[in-house]
Amino acid sequence: RIGTAALAVQVVGSNWPKPHYTLLVTGLCRFQILQLLKEKPYPVAEVQQLDRLEQFTNGHKSEEELGELSEQFYKYAVQLVEMLDMSVPAVAKLRRLLDNLPREALPDILTSIIRTTNQEKLQILDAVRLEERFKMTIPLLVRQIEGLKLLQKTRKSKQDDDKRVVAIRPNRRITHGSITEDEEEEEDHDDVVMLEKKIRTSSMSEQALKVCLKEIKRLKKMPQSMPEYALTRNYLELMVELPWNKSTKDRLEIRAARIVLDNDHYAMEKLKKRVLEYLAVRQLKNNLKGPILCFVGPPGVGKTSVGRSIAKTLGREFHRIALGGVCDQSDIRGHRRTYVGSMPGRIINGLKTVGVNNPVFLLDEVDKLAKSLQGDPAAALLEVLDPEQNHSFTDHYLNVAFDLSQVLFIATANTTATIPPALLDRMEVIQVPGYTQEEKIEIAHRHLIPKQLELHGLTPQQIQIPQVTTLGIITRYTREAGVRALDRKLGAICRAVAVKVAEGQHKEAKPDRAEVGEGEDCKEHITEDAKPESISDTADLALPPEMPILIDFHALKDILGPPMYDMEVSERLNQPGVAIGLAWTPLGGEIMFVEASRMDGEGQLTLTGQLGDVMKESAHLAISWLRSNAKRYQLTNASGSFDLLDNTDIHLHFPAGAVTKDGPSAGVTIVTCLASLFSGRLVCSDVAMTGEITLRGLVLPVGGIKDKVLAAHRAGLKRIIIPQRNEKDLEEIAAHVRQDLTFVLAACLDEVLNAAFDGGFAVKARLEHFNSKL
Ligand code: ADP
Questions:
Q1: Distance 304 CA to ligand 1 centre (A)
Q2: 309 part of the active site
Q3: Domain with residues 254-431, CATH architecture
Q4: Considering the chain, what is the average pLDDT of its residues?
Q5: How confident is the model at residue 495 (pLDDT cuts 50, 70, 90)?
Q6: Which UniProt keywords apply (predicted)?
Q7: Does the pTM exceed 0.85?
Q8: Whose CA is nearest to atom 9 of ligand 1?
Q9: Given 342, 665, 676, 679, the catalytic residue
Q10: Hey, which CATH number is domain 578-756, 3.30.230.10, 1.10.260.40, 3.10.310.40, 3.30.70.2750?
Q11: Which of 85, 122, 317, 628 could form a disulfide with 163 if both were Cys (CB 3.0 to 4.6 A apart)?
């Protein structure tokens, strides 16, 4: 019931890699518990202070007696300390303390320093009377001195130069199989010895070995209670775990690689071709120096999964490092080891995770690195990716060089626009465009559906998804360039079917319940209509489902809800002042409506829909061009005047107002939309267009044609107006898509308007200014 009152001075520690906290306290005095007031959540008690220094000096007799005792104690203590290595600063300090501290305090201090069991320490604590305390501590000192003598004798004979204090310990008692504290300490000590052994046997670089040995020397001298102890130990453990020399053997065989790539991925011919070239060069040259591949394309087109396939073909470990939102360069390069909670960067962590020094690292989303006050992570990546430098990559945490030259880096991004130029320069960009509907159907049936079936424990005998259903999902439930949403929808279908199948199994086990409802004849007639497979049909639930469950449009609606996207195009184009443009976003191509309306006013132009500066300028350009050509095209305002803005305000709106839009390619669409507004004619409902305009009415080329065309194709449009100088981009588009579409190549706005309106757009006088006047 006796304890020590103490003051907490410091709490340090971290939760990484495992929770380890150190509490630094200053002991104040002994106290005794008089009454326990409560135990939870922490004990509270009434206590009485026991140590009072005046008390010790009271009474002459005891002082004399004590004087002898304390003198004896002091002698032993000095003898013990002098047997230790005085060159260690802590020992020298202890020696000084013996002289400076009041004698009464010595028994407590020395008991805490010399090797004693917990039990013995408690006994000393319980000895409230000073005399008793001295008497009890002296034998412990003597024991320690004897132990040291013995040890020094054996040491000498072994010529061991290690002067550490190792004390003999009393016989350990292991009570009821539980580990005493003593044993724990020994374990820790053993751990350090093991660690040293591991360091010596590991294959780390010479420089690293030197650093580690120095650290382990420090660790041995450090009391475990020091916060640095945990830090140093974590550091050394990491150093031992790192794959300094461990690698997997490459098995590079181009023919096998081609098969793996083809098996894992449908379509993406250009990407696969480039990857094979890359691997072939690696095989011939037998090293990995070369450009870093960077796959750029919309989400869900398989960039990550191609990276994984490359690792598979090479027989290497694969590790993905997500860089999206990383804004601190220590994320890449690690924190310096000077503060608590420091840790290595993601590269070194990745190497530790995979356990070999030649993995494939996929740097995901390099376009989403951000800059902040904590430095520029892109700059740190430069060092990682540069083959000239990365053989001696120095993580701040490790503080020694690690060779990254065997690591194969692959990067992915949605757009190159936001990749810092210096980083982009180190990489070879391979565009991965979105998929056509046909490609998506193939991908779904070859890869996604089998994968989802396996994930949900279903077999093709239980569920059947015909191609028309897949097409329905693609067109009516998803609108994306990749296949990720499609994959999710297929997952949802599999889940719903899994419930049905599991219920069916349950019912089959109890056939008597199957007779409810309209019944048994349903079991016999397996028809292809919606009946047996409409999942939400309650009468149906009473029956074991007919296998395979066919997913048709009714079932789709039951599982996925009403279609999310309608073929709304024609509906929206049924009044003048609407046109369809094509836009490119990092997520792939999209169709974009442009709406215009006019009202009485003072010639103002209002633009809404989150537009960037370039887009606003395009709108101004379009209006200027139309105003200057109003007569030629017979465009009038509401009161019949050719001055289009006379007493008229114009409002242009780009729906999906939450998405920021910018870029010059909407120019032709704005012109067409306004021409429709002022002429009162409807734009053809199946036409989409893209192109930049000039003040003189020329149409300039724009980027992202392939993605835009795919988007138009997805939306069911038939005719696409593109700038003439973009003709070369059409070659990249799959033949079957091209077959479905008519392309109009326009060099000037005349041609655009003619193609956009049924029956052309009448021009009063032919344009002359394209012909040379010379
Ligand atoms: P990204 O990294 O481009 O965002 P992922 O690589 O994560 O996309 O791909 C998403 C999913 O789509 C993966 O399950 C992948 O297997 C599948 N996938 C994408 N493209 C194809 C393809 N051409 N063939 C087979 N599966 C594909």
A1: 7
A2: no
A3: 3-Layer(aba) Sandwich (3.40)
A4: 81
A5: very high
A6: ATP-binding, Hydrolase, Nucleotide-binding, Peroxisome, Protease, Serine protease
A7: no
A8: 302
A9: 665
A10: 3.30.230.10
A11: 85
